């Protein structure tokens, strides 16, 4: 029996990862999902997941040391996803982003190395760790490999509160794994999207809500900025494949990008959504991107492919349609 812990289990990635692992491992898995429900939520989708007898849910605050007494031990895999995320929150509560993300990781690593010596630890970092290099130096390799300098170009800009926790978080995991000789993995997500990704602060949910509301003129912030978008089922499959691969068991631990191949502008993304939803505004309202917003992102995912043979299975058009349909059926409750 494979025993797996997912922190942030009621969140966007945690929920989809849990669904994937149940399908992948069948009756040979026991899942423990931890969340404090600050961002994650007990909605109908999550309630259905919890009906599975293989799943246990613990409502815990991972910044409280007492919580770790309730986690147990002997996990084969720990996926540490819990963090305060969402660009809007980076600006609104940077002090809490810093406190919660850093403290929960430190406590998790201390608990893990004492109670799960034979397990494997996955830390979800972010492309935000190096995102401001392009702004600071005017150059960044595109596609961007894992070995690029970490940069926080302006510590006074609250935007980089989240990035700094991921930057320092990578250092913690690298050196804890080395010092205490446990297996670990760093993954850097690149714009995962899909159903249940929240309602504010992420571009595809925001676009979906505006389309559903028929907002016209249609606002687009940073229309010429580019991203790649990886549908969440492809993303969590990549995470599981990396954790199961013996190629990510050694020291020093591996850092691996997870993302799609196809770069698209924010204006192009909006136009794709107009196509798949069958509605188009009469006019666009092009607005300046927020301060600190990154001009261009395109990950090099060759390491992911070399380790696992992973390829995305869901096209952008199909993924956008699935996401829009979910948001149409599940509007935000006011």
Automatic annotation (TrEMBL):
InterPro entries registered for this protein in UniProt: NAD(P)-bd_dom, NAD(P)-bd_dom_sf
A Pfam family hit: GDP_Man_Dehyd
NAD(P)-binding domain ranges (all copies): 5-323
Protein name: NAD(P)-binding domain-containing protein
Source organism of the structure: Candidatus Giovannonibacteria bacterium RIFCSPHIGHO2_02_FULL_45_40
Lineage: Bacteria, Candidatus Giovannoniibacteriota
């Amino acid at each position: 029996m494979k025993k797996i812990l997912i922190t942030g289990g009621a969140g966007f990635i945690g929920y989809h990862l849990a669904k994937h692992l149940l399908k992948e491992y069948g009756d040979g898995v026991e899942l423990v999902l931890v969340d404090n429900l600050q961002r994650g939520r007990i909605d109908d989708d999550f309630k259905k997941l919890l009906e599975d007898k293989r799943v246990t849910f613990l409502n815990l605050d991972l910044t409280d040391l007492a919580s770790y007494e309730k986690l147990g031990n002997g996990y084969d895999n720990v996926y540490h996803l819990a963090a305060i995320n969402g660009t809007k929150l980076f600006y609104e509560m940077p002090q809490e982003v810093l406190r919660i993300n850093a403290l929960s990781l430190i406590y998790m690593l201390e608990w893990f190395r004492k109670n799960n010596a034979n397990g494997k630890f996955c830390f979800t970092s972010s492309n935000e760790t190096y995102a401001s290099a392009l702004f600071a130096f005017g150059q960044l390799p595109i596609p961007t490999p894992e070995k690029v300098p970490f940069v926080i170009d302006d510590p006074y800009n609250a935007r980089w509160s989240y990035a700094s926790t991921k930057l320092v978080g990578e250092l913690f995991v690298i050196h804890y794994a080395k010092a205490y000789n446990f297996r670990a993995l760093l993954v850097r997500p690149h714009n995962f999207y899909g159903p249940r990704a929240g309602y504010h602060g992420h571009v595809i949910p925001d676009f979906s809500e505006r389309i559903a509301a028929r907002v016209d003129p249609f606002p687009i912030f940073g229309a010429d900025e580019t991203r790649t978008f990886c549908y969440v089922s492809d993303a969590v499959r990549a995470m599981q494949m990396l954790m199961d691969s013996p190629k990510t068991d050694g020291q020093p631990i591996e850092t691996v990008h997870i993302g799609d191949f196809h770069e698209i502008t924010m204006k192009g993304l909006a136009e794709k959504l107009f196509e798949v939803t069958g509605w188009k505004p009469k006019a666009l309202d092009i607005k300046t991107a927020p301060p600190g917003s990154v001009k261009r992102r395109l990950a090099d995912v060759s390491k992911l492919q070399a380790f696992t043979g992973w390829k995305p299975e869901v096209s952008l058009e199909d993924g956008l349609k699935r996401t829009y349909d979910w948001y149409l059926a599940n509007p935000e409750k006011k």
